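Ticket #4471: structure export looks truncated?
Reporter: QA, pipeline team
Priority: medium

Steps to reproduce: submit the single chain below to the structure queue and open the exported record.
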Amino acid sequence: MSDNKRVFLIVLDSFGIGNAPDADKFGDEGSNTLLSISKSEKFDMPTMASLGFFNIDGVDYLPSSRRPKASFARLIEASNGKDTTIGHWEIAGVESENPLPVYPDGFPPEVVEQYEKLTGRKVLCNKPYSGTQVIDDYGEEHMKTGDLIVYTSADSVFQVAAHEEVVSVEQLYEYCQMARDMLTGKHAVGRVIARPFVGSGKGSFTRTKNRHDYSLKPPKKTSLDYIKEAGLDVIGVGKIYDIFDGEGISEKIKTANNDEGMKVAIDLAKRDFNGLAFINLVDFDMVYGHRNNVEGYAQAATDFDKALAEMLPLLREDDLLIITADHGCDPGTPSTDHSRECVPLIMYGKNIPGGKNLGTIKSFAHIGATVADYLGVNAQLDADSLLPELK
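Actual output as written to the record:
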């Protein structure tokens, strides 16, 4: 057996638990991702319930556990945003005063013109759009003209879609690197995303697995940097590597969906490492939240809960499991955007007292500080460790 300390930090992407106090400023009053999916017959999370998930402040519509096995809290985001990038940076200990730019009306003419000049190709679409719908609506025109399909979403993203037979994947990556280098200052979007697709015509176009993200680097050192510099492992699972542009990551493991993400988490629980496994489960957000699919979201929550039940017995004496989220994306509201919500914090381990309710706390950055503290790493972050409160 190893003496190594291991932290498993699992982000249920977009799994909000009720609107944040300032949700009205974001147009998200009344959003509650957990409440929306809990009404579905497909929703069943006994493992999370046993840890204290339904004992968290505000979750008074689901049966709480009499003897929760974990400590728990409700977290309010301190950063000015509700997107993946800023949410994860804050989880890793860095709060962001300024929101990343979003483009509800598409990118301004000066951005489009500069990009056309750089690539030598015209731009199609330039609007917020569903990634599957945009290739259906513009794919044929793109194939005829070679123009690039450029679109955005509610997130701070500049997405470029191209058919693999019209623009090679390598060429598309070059065009996206040009966009990343170009988008600075007030147009410094969180991510530039290459979205290659294939197919012969409308109705047959499908995106391939060759997606590639070009992320903005965090504004300063995160807990990941401090942990890696201390000589410990930082294993990024899912889109973690992309979100941090590789900063502070010692090993990356790509996954295609939640099921793969949890399979990797279970495999890692069986493996020796010393440090942090940081796991993002993206389906909640990408596949269900943005598509207002309440039933699918509820089923994904149930599937995660089953996988978690498989993982818990594999945890060792010195392991710490943290489960949280980066923002909300309530599938039960008319909006398909992210929602400004509070998120859950579950902390479980043989050395962590069960049943301790830490109440409602401002800043996700306490998570990064707690992880560093648990691993014995000194880190200067934007919030304090919660470990002293658990003793």
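Status: closed, not a bug. The export was complete when the record was re-opened. Leaving a note from the reviewer for reference: The mean pLDDT is 96.
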